[in-house]
Specification:
heterodimer, A: 291 residues, mainly alpha, two-stranded antiparallel sheet, 2 strands, 3% strand, B: 390 residues, alpha/beta, nine-stranded mixed beta sheet, 12 helices, 15 strands
Chain lengths: 291, 390
C-alpha cells in the first residue's frame, strides 16, 4: 500500500513539474498556452537524442533539456506569443493548438514516430524495499529521484515567487501591467523570462518523464488533458494549488488503477468533476486578484 | 474459300476482342496500400511499406503482362480516415485490391466498402480474429492473436507456470489474447489469478505492475501493441519482478524485433509465442532478412514486414492465376487456398476462413553476437485460427 502511495506521489510530482509552467503562464500571465506540452516534448527529445546519438550522460541532459526548452520558449515568446497577449482567449487557444499540431508533425518528420526508449544509468535503475507484509514500501530509485528533484524545484519556485525581487515584479506586472510599467518595471522582460522559465520547467519535466510516460510525437496531445486538469483543479494563482492538485491526481490515478483496474482510467475525471463542483475556481484561489 | 476467310476474320476479331477486354487496354493493376505511416503505429507502416517495396524490387513490377502499381496512403491509424481513403481508392482510383491495415479498427472500417465493390481486401497487419468475418472479401496474411496466444496457454503449464495474471491492452486484439490464452491455460490446469486491462493510451504501467507483484503469480502474460512493449518490459525489470520470481510471457508483440535491441538486458529470457522471428533459421528467411536490412539501412524486418511481404505474394500469385485479368471475385478465388514457403515458414491461406494457417513458434530472448534475438526453441505446426472454430 505504501508502494502505491509512493508511486502515486512520484507520478504526481512529475505531473506537477510538467504542468507548473502552464500554471504560471495561464494563471499569472493570463495566457492560455495549450502548446505547453510541446515544450515538454522538446525537452524529452533533447534528452533522448543527446543520449542516443551523442552519448551525453543523463544528468547532464536534464539541465540541457531545461535550457533548450527555455531558449525555444524565449524565442517563441518574443516572436509569436507577445502579439497575442492582448487578444481574446479564443485566439490564444486556436493559436497554441495550431502550434501543437505543427510540433507533432515536425517531430514526426524529423525524428520519426516510434516510441523513444531512454537508457537510464545503472544507479537509477534499482529499487529499495523497506518493511514487510502489507506495509512494504518499495521505492524505485528513479521515482525517488523524480520526487527529490521536483520537491527541490517546488521550494525554489515558491521562494522565487514570494521572496525575491523578481517575484514581486512579476506579481506586480500581472496584476496591473500599466501601473507596473509606470513604476519602472520592464514588463516585457519580466514576461519573457517568466515564459522562458515556464517552458524550461516543461522541458525538464519532459526529460524526466520520458522514462515513465513514454515519448512519441503525440506527447503534447496525450498529456494536454492532464496538464489542464492539474491547473484547473489546483487553481492558477499559486504554486501550492497545482502542487496539491497534481499530487492528489497522481495518487488517485495510481491507486484507482491498482484497486479498481476496471475503472482505472476514469477516476481522475470523476475526481476533477467533484472538485470543480465543490470549488469551481480550483482548490486554492487568491483573494482579491483580477479574475 | 470465301467462307473460310470470313471465319478466320471472325476468329481473329474474337481473339482481339477477348484480349482487349482481358488486358483492359494495358491499364495497370492497382493496389491501394493503406498504412499508418505517421502516428503511434508508424513502425508498422514503415515495416510493411519496406517489405512491399522489397517484394516488387525482387519480383518485378509486371505480372502476367500487366504493370502493377502500388498507391500508398497514410491513414495515421484513425479508422475514419481509413474509411475515407478506402472509399477514394476504390471509387476514384479504381484499385483492384486494397491492402495494408495497421490496426483492427481500420480494417473493419473498410470491410463493408470492400464487400459492396467486390474488391479483395488483403490484411497485412491487423490481428483481431473477427476481421475476416467482417467481409467475404477479406484475406489475411499476418496472424491472429488467438493463434499466437493459444500456443502460450499450452506451453506455460508444462513449464512450471501454474498461476498467471494477464495484462492486456483494452481493445480488440488484447481482449482476444486475454480470452484465448486464459481459456487454454485453464483447460491445461492452470489458474488465472486476475485479468487486468490497460487503457490504450496508458501513460504509466506502474500501478498495474505493482498489482501483479502483490498477487505473486508464477508468470505475467502480456499483450500490448508493438511499441508499448518496451515500456512494460523496462518497468517490469525496474520493479524487480523478475527477482521476485515472476516470469514474463506473452505474444511476440512484446519483444518486437524492431525494438528488441533497444530494450536491453531486461528482455533476456522472456518467452513469447509468435509466428515470426527475425532469427528464424531457414534459408528463405536468411535471404529475406539480408535483402531487407540491406535495402533499409540495417533496419530489422519484424513480423509486420512479413505480413506485407507475403501479402504481396498472395496478390501477385492471384493475378498470375487469372492470367493478368484480375476482377474482384476471380482474384479472391485465386487467393484462397494458396500454399507457399514464407520467410516465417510454410503458410497456407485457408479457403474457408480466408485466414492464414501457419506454424507458431515458442521463442526466448537470447544474446548472440552482441545483439538480442528471439530464438525459436519449439514449434506448433499448422495452427489454424482458434477464433474461427467456435
Amino acid at each position: 500500500m505504501l508502494t502505491i502511495l509512493f508511486d502515486g506521489i512520484a507520478y504526481g510530482m512529475l505531473l506537477f513539474i510538467l504542468a507548473v509552467g502552464l500554471a504560471v503562464t495561464m494563471g499569472l500571465m493570463n495566457f492560455i498556452n495549450l502548446a505547453h506540452g510541446a515544450f515538454a516534448m522538446v525537452g524529452g527529445y533533447i534528452t533522448v537524442l543527446l543520449m542516443q546519438r551523442a552519448g551525453v550522460p543523463f544528468l547532464l541532459c536534464l539541465p540541457l533539456a531545461f535550457a533548450g526548452a527555455a531558449l525555444l520558449g524565449a524565442v517563441l515568446e518574443r516572436t509569436l506569443y507577445r502579439p497575442l497577449y492582448s487578444k481574446p482567449h479564443l485566439d490564444q487557444v486556436l493559436f497554441s493548438i495550431g502550434l501543437v499540431f505543427m510540433s507533432v508533425a515536425a517531430v514526426d518528420y524529423f525524428v520519426g514516430s516510434t516510441q523513444q526508449i531512454l537508457h537510464l544509468p545503472e544507479w537509477l535503475k534499482g529499487r529499495t524495499e523497506l518493511g514487510s507484509g502489507a506495509w512494504t514500501l518499495g521505492m524505485g530509485h528513479y521515482r525517488l529521484f523524480i520526487i527529490v528533484i521536483c520537491a527541490a524545484l517546488t521550494v525554489l519556485l515558491q521562494w522565487i515567487l514570494s521572496r525575491t525581487r523578481f517575484g514581486s515584479r512579476l506579481r506586480a506586472s500581472v496584476d496591473d501591467q500599466r501601473v507596473a510599467a509606470g513604476m519602472g518595471i520592464n514588463v516585457n522582460v519580466v514576461f519573457l523570462s517568466t515564459f522562458a522559465f515556464g517552458s524550461g520547467l516543461a522541458g525538464l519535466g519532459g526529460a524526466l518523464g520520458a522514462e515513465v510516460l513514454g515519448l512519441d510525437p503525440s506527447f503534447p496531445l496525450k498529456f494536454m488533458i492532464y496538464f489542464l486538469i492539474v491547473v484547473a483543479v489546483g487553481g492558477t494563482s499559486s504554486i501550492t494549488g497545482p502542487l496539491l492538485a497534481a499530487l492528489l491526481l497522481g495518487i488517485a490515478d495510481v491507486a484507482g488503477k491498482y484497486y479498481i483496474p476496471k475503472m482505472g482510467a476514469f477516476i481522475v475525471y470523476v475526481l476533477m468533476i467533484v472538485i470543480l463542483l465543490w470549488r469551481p475556481q480550483g482548490l486554492f484561489v487568491r483573494q482579491g486578484g483580477k479574475a | 474459300m470465301h467462307k473460310r476467310t470470313i471465319l478466320r476474320a471472325a476468329a481473329a476479331a474474337a481473339v482481339v476482342a477477348v484480349s482487349c477486354s482481358s488486358f483492359a487496354q494495358g491499364t495497370p493493376f492497382k493496389i491501394g496500400l493503406i498504412l499508418p505511416m505517421t502516428g503511434q503505429q508508424a513502425t508498422t507502416g514503415r515495416q510493411i511499406d519496406a517489405a512491399v517495396k522489397l517484394w516488387i524490387a525482387q519480383n518485378g513490377s509486371t505480372v502476367a503482362g500487366r504493370k502493377v502499381e502500388v498507391i500508398l496512403k497514410d491513414d495515421t491509424s484513425l479508422p475514419d480516415v481509413t474509411r475515407r481513403i478506402g472509399q477514394e481508392l476504390i471509387v476514384n482510383d479504381k484499385v483492384d485490391v486494397v491492402a495494408g491495415f495497421g490496426i483492427t479498427p481500420s480494417a473493419l472500417a473498410v470491410a463493408p466498402i470492400a464487400t459492396q465493390s467486390k474488391t479483395p481486401l488483403v490484411v497485412m497487419a491487423a490481428a483481431t480474429s473477427s476481421i475476416t468475418e467482417a467481409s467475404p472479401y477479406v484475406v489475411r496474411t499476418s496472424f491472429t492473436l488467438p493463434q499466437a496466444s493459444v500456443a502460450m496457454g499450452d506451453w506455460a503449464p508444462k513449464n512450471n507456470i501454474k498461476t498467471v495474471v494477464t495484462l492486456v491492452t483494452d481493445y480488440g486484439p488484447g481482449i482476444d489474447a486475454e480470452r484465448f490464452f486464459s481459456e487454454r491455460f485453464i483447460f491445461n490446469g492452470g489458474k488465472v489469478v486476475d485479468k487486468l486491462r490497460v487503457p490504450l493510451r496508458n501513460p504509466d504501467f506502474a500501478p498495474f505492475l505493482q498489482k501483479v507483484r502483490d498477487l505473486k503469480p508464477d508468470a505475467l502474460f502480456v499483450f500490448v501493441p508493438s511499441g508499448a512493449g518496451a515500456a512494460v518490459m523496462k518497468q517490469f525489470g525496474e520493479r524487480g519482478m523478475d527477482k521476485a520470481g515472476i516470469r514474463l510471457i506473452g505474444t511476440g508483440d512484446v519483444t518486437d524485433d524492431d525494438q528488441l535491441n533497444d530494450m536491453g538486458d531486461v528482455a533476456l529470457g522472456v518467452v513469447t509465442s509468435h509466428h515470426y522471428s527475425t532469427a528464424h533459421p531457414s534459408a528463405a528467411n536468411k535471404k529475406y532478412v539480408e535483402a531487407f536490412m540491406k535495402a533499409n539501412n540495417n533496419l530489422r524486418p519484424n513480423f509486420m514486414s512479413v505480413g506485407g511481404y507475403d501479402g504481396m505474394r498472395v496478390i501477385y500469385e492471384a493475378l498470375k492465376k487469372t492470367g493478368g485479368k484480375g476482377g474482384g471475385d476471380a482474384l479472391l478465388a485465386a487467393m484462397k487456398g494458396q500454399i507457399f514457403e514464407s520467410p516465417r515458414g510454410p503458410v497456407f491461406i485457408d479457403a474457408q476462413t480466408r485466414d492464414v494457417v501457419q506454424n507458431i513458434y515458442l521463442r526466448k530472448v537470447e544474446r548472440k553476437d552482441g545483439q538480442l534475438w528471439n530464438t525459436e526453441f519449439d514449434v506448433i505446426k499448422d495452427v489454424k485460427d482458434p477464433g474461427k472454430t467456435k
